[in-house]
Amino acid sequence: MKELEDRIRRDGTVKPGNVLKVDAFLNHQCDVDLFDQMGTEWARLFADRHIDKILTIEASGIGIACMAARHFGNVPVVFAKKTQSINLDGDQYVASIYSFTKQREYPVIVAKRFLHEGEHVLLIDDFLANGNALHGLIDICHHAGVVIEGIGIAIEKGFQEGGKKLREEGYDIQSLAIVDSMDAEAGTIEFTSAQ
């Protein structure tokens, strides 16, 4: 998606360790118009799929998932929580994932009452690098007995293995921007064509 690639080039920052900082528009400050364009594009890419719900993970996936939901008939958005709280009651699906950016493992939790066997779910997230967060969501989906119709990603780090592995596992991944390479010293970002 050219608009997203242009925005990454203009406002993204490459940090040492293959970190792409896009907090000016994606995962700290939110550009709602850009999110809406992203939702439009995912709706086009998954137009032949029946979607009952969108599943994401807090916090950065929530905004883009909510905007995308508008383009799928205002389906509900369910987000996996990263911490247990007194507000999480009843039976729960729990998976453990490792965060590259936080450098630690943590649980992701979804109340069982929000995912029902046989529902058709679209997974949405802001980044795909190693695929750990998505594998956690996929694990929850398998335990819930829902059908994963596809995976929508804002930015995929194509030089890392996550996307390749998930595609080999048979998942339809539609990434709006695929970063082929980044150079922190030069501040450059190169893209491959989205699939």
Summary, kept brief:
The chain contains 5 helices and 10 strands. By secondary structure, it is an alpha/beta fold.
Describe the structure.
By secondary structure, this protein is of the alpha/beta class. The termini are close together. It has helices spanning 2-11, 32-45, 60-70, 132-144, 162-168; strands at residues 13-15, 19-21, 53-57, 77-80, 92-99, 104-111, 120-128, 147-157, 173-183, 188-192. It has one domain (2-192): Rossmann fold, CATH 3.40.50. The model has no long low-confidence stretch (mean pLDDT 93). It is globular. It has a six-stranded mixed beta sheet, sandwiched between helices. 28% of the residues lie in helices and 34% in strands. The longest helix is centred in the N-terminal third of the chain and has 14 residues, at 32-45. Belongs to the purine/pyrimidine phosphoribosyltransferase family. Xpt subfamily. It is found in: Cytoplasm. Its EC number is 2.4.2.22. Its main location: cytoplasm. Residues 47-150 form the Phosphoribosyltransferase domain.
